[in-house]
Amino acid sequence: MSLSDAELERYARQIVLPKFGGVGQQKLKAASIAVIGAGGIGSGAVPALAAAGIGKLTIIDDDVVDRSNLQRQPIFRDDQVGGEKAMLAARFAMALNPHVEAVARERRIDAGNASELLEGHDLVLDGSDNFATRLAVSDACVGLGIPLVSAAAVQLQGQVGLFRGAPCYRCFVGDAFDSEDCDNCAELGVLGALPLTVGSFAALMAIRAIAGMGEDSGKLHLLDADQLSWRAIPLPADPGCRACGVPPQSG
Ligand SMILES: [Zn+2]
């Protein structure tokens, strides 16, 4: 996939990187990423992915902009309160970079439609705000063989991980949270810059994965915005995981 003169100029500062180069830029241009949730994490991830030159973005969100979102979702403006987030985020991406094709899917993703919505993408970046959605997305990604960057932020804590098959997000969380929405920002609060930082970090992981810059899976990156520190913990695969584990022998 060749790059035009305008693209070579736009992406010059990353094409010059020895570990990235023109080959890395062409991989980004050829890539299709689904971003789930145009919230705080999406507000960090979408500008970073669009600016870097990801060729196709699908933005999945069924919500509208609320005034209380603007404290952490700066891709939306005060005069867009009440507007559809997926559509506004897709427009934001294409206004930022006309070489990006961004599509809005104004749907709530769940276990019933996740595979259909995510099929055909090269990577999924999940910034949704509840465990049930994140688990449904993870199960679909394991089934479809799509790498998943799963990101979350609440109160003063953020977490980001890249999952490729096993271990999967369900190995880490377990099965207890499928029906619970237990990390809701509306109840617990979140400091504005935190999800943006986590969303940008998730975009960095996605770009590294697409460009083939190194293997980052199998670790969970934790940001503590209270102590202001990052740390990475290894994630063991759960052999009994019902998404990525070995299915029990029947008979
Ligand atoms: Zn698993």
TrEMBL record:
It holds the Pfam family ThiF. Residues 11-242 form the THIF-type NAD/FAD binding fold domain. This is HesA/MoeB/ThiF family protein.
